[in-house]
Amino acid sequence: MIAKLPARKFAAICSSVMILAIAPAASSGETLSDTLVAAYKHSGLLEQNRALLRAADEGVAQAVSALRPIISWSADLSRQFGNGKNAFGIATASSSTTANIGLSAEILLYDFGATPLRAEIARESVLATRQTLLAVEQNVLQRAVAAYMNVRRSSEFVALRNNNVRLISQELRAARDRFEVGEVTRTDVALAEARLAAARSGLAAAQGDLMRAQEEYRAAVGHKPRSLSAPPRVPNAAKSVDAAKAIARRNHPEMAKVQHDVKAAELSVLLAEAAMKPSIRLTGQYGLSEGLNSSFNNSGGSIGIRAAGPIYQGGRLSSLLRQSMAQRDVARASLHVVRMGVDQSVGNAFAQLSVARASLAATEQQVRASRVAFRGLREEASLGARTTLDVLNAEQELLNAQATQISAMADEQIAAYTLLASMGMLTAEQLRLRVQIYDPEAYYKQVKDAPTLRSKQGQKLDRVLRAIGKE
């Protein structure tokens, strides 16, 4: 026998689930934009890759410095002593102390373009590293979006499960009351107890999922989630998958990076060819020698032009040339591979977004139909035409439909931002986040001319780096 509830009792049980079904989401709290701003400011990965970019910038300065004079100094102090005999057999001793100091200078005049090529390769490396930084920025923001939506999803799942536990607890109390007066059997109580245990198990699982989502949010954003407001309207990315792919080929940082890698590899071939040719340098030196215990002193210098080049190195230079050509071919092949991968990522993201939108539309219909069915069964149960189990099943179907709808909403947001990332448009600048956008040109402009440590520019750079190191 399945228990039937009186209309008044049954209406009280059902009211809570109906309130949850129609309650609007909270409109105040931490927004998705706030979360993205916090993730941008917090991310250690961004700081790490900004430091790598600064290191790459210094590669340009080092290459440029090879075109400038190299001036060095040297100094030594030596003492000479000895014993001997003169022609008459008389023992003699001698000693002297000499101090030497010298300056040398050298400047490259011509090396068939090898040194300028090194500077160009370093610049291409800088441009490639900048694109790597943009790719990391996209990953950081994409992770923050997923963390935000998963916390909201898990929080609403917990609320649904809590509501489910409350409803079944009320049903169990009603079944026990009727069992005491003999209106129902022990089977009815056992049914309600089993459903309550299952509901509590589902609640525990949902609470565990929420805790994991909160930890992921803290790792991605830098603080534990507070009250999260409803996300904004799903961003528009592209009207068609072909349009999205065309944008990705132009904008995606992986595409831009590999293009700079190809350019650097092509320049490396030219560098390997130039390394087989001679170089011409202008050299000069000046020195002073002074006897500390005598009147001896000497000074002088020289200036000249020196040419040098390889004759035979056991085939090493030829091997380096062939190696650079192979690496150039690797880079060119990588361009094709990356382009195909970007196209695939865009296609997958576009399909994911389409599926999420279709699922959301379907779940909205499912929720409406389940709510109508639930209301109808509730009325029929109040008239004795339906059992408590029928109503509980209908209530469970409504909760399941609501859970599916919540997931579909989260999946749509995540898919939309994933599509933006696959197109190369998920950056702080593109999203217009209220943050100070990192300018990769700023540091490069300061170091590209290779300022010395004691120059005004060098001292300014030293202060900047010290400030960065203390953060």
Describe the overall structure.
The chain is α+β, with helices and mostly antiparallel strands and 471 residues long. It has a single domain (7-77, 95-438), classed as Outer membrane efflux proteins (OEP) (Up-down Bundle). The chain is built from twelve helices and four strands, in the order H-H-H-E-E-H-H-H-H-E-E-H-H-H-H-H. Strands 1-2-3-4 form a four-stranded antiparallel sheet, with no helix packed on it. Helix 1 (7-22) packs antiparallel against helix 4. It is elongated, with a radius of gyration of 38 Å. The two termini are 71 Å apart.
> Per CATH, which architecture?
Up-down Bundle
The overall average pLDDT, rounded, is 85
Element string (H = helix, E = strand): HHHEEHHHHEEHHHHH
Number of contiguous helices: 12
- Span from first to last CA? 71 Å
Low-confidence stretches: 1-27
Main β-sheet: number of strands, strand sense, barrel status?
4 strands, antiparallel
Order of adjacent strands in the largest pleated sheet = 1-2-3-4
Number of strands: 4
Please estimate the helix content.
55-70%
User: Which homologous superfamily in CATH is the superfamily?
Assistant: Outer membrane efflux proteins (OEP)
Number of domains: 1
CATH class: Mainly Alpha
CATH topology: Outer membrane efflux proteins (OEP)
- Write down the overall geometry: elongated
Topology of helices and strands:
Elements: H1 7-22, H2 32-42, H3 44-65, E1 70-85, E2 91-110, H4 114-180, H5 186-221, H6 241-251, H7 253-274, E3 279-291, E4 297-308, H8 316-382, H9 388-422, H10 428-431, H11 440-447, H12 456-470
Antiparallel strand pairs: 1-2, 2-3, 3-4
